[in-house]
Design brief:
23% of the residues lie in helices and 22% in strands. The protein contains 4 helices and 7 strands. Strands 1, 2, 3, 4, 5, 6 and 7 form a 7-stranded antiparallel β-sheet that branches. A hairpin with a 5-residue loop joins strand 2 and strand 3. The protein is globular, with a radius of gyration of 15 Å. The two termini are 24 Å apart.
């Protein structure tokens, strides 16, 4: 069974640029796929490590609370982009690479990673901080719209 992470970021992410950056910084990865298929990261032996689904914009208030729980949603700024990052099961290093990828998205675009989302830090990119581009980085925090026990179980929003 795969391990899922969700990166909730402020701007539409370029998953290929983040993956290329990881490779440039020394990760021994091969990038495959992409739109319309998922983007996949393989190790040097060709084994699938991580599958990254296309980003989906979440603009409906309460949707994050419904899928991930009210407590987590209260710390996320909407609108945002949802990116599913799945680590392959039983493959050494897959979860480390998935976590590094999700954390890199958040580092450069602002946002949080679920589960274990750290406090939302300022984006490292000026474009994600709301000083340019086509969208705002602000927004009201999501209300706790979900019921106790409601949590994301996988799948696609949209």
């Amino acid at each position: 069974m795969s391990a899922d992470l969700v990166a909730l970021v402020r701007r539409r992410p370029d998953v290929h640029a983040i993956a290329d950056g990881m490779i440039a910084m020394g990760e021994s990865l091969e990038l495959r796929g992409g739109e319309p298929d998922s983007t996949r990261l393989h190790d040097g032996d060709g084994r699938l490590l991580v599958s990254i689904e296309d980003p989906v914009q979440v603009s409906v208030q309460g949707e994050i609370g419904r899928l991930l729980g009210a407590e987590f949603a209260g710390r996320v700024t909407e609108p945002c982009w949802w990116v599913d990052v799945r680590a392959a099961a039983d493959v050494p290093d897959a979860m480390r690479v998935a976590r590094k990828f999700a954390d890199s998205l958040v580092r450069w675009l602002g946002g949080m990673v679920y589960p274990e989302g750290a406090a939302d830090a300022p984006a490292r990119s000026w474009r994600a901080s709301g000083h340019g581009g086509d969208g705002s980085a602000g927004g009201a925090p999501a209300p706790g719209g979900g019921l106790p026990g409601d949590a994301y179980q996988g799948g696609v929003i949209g």
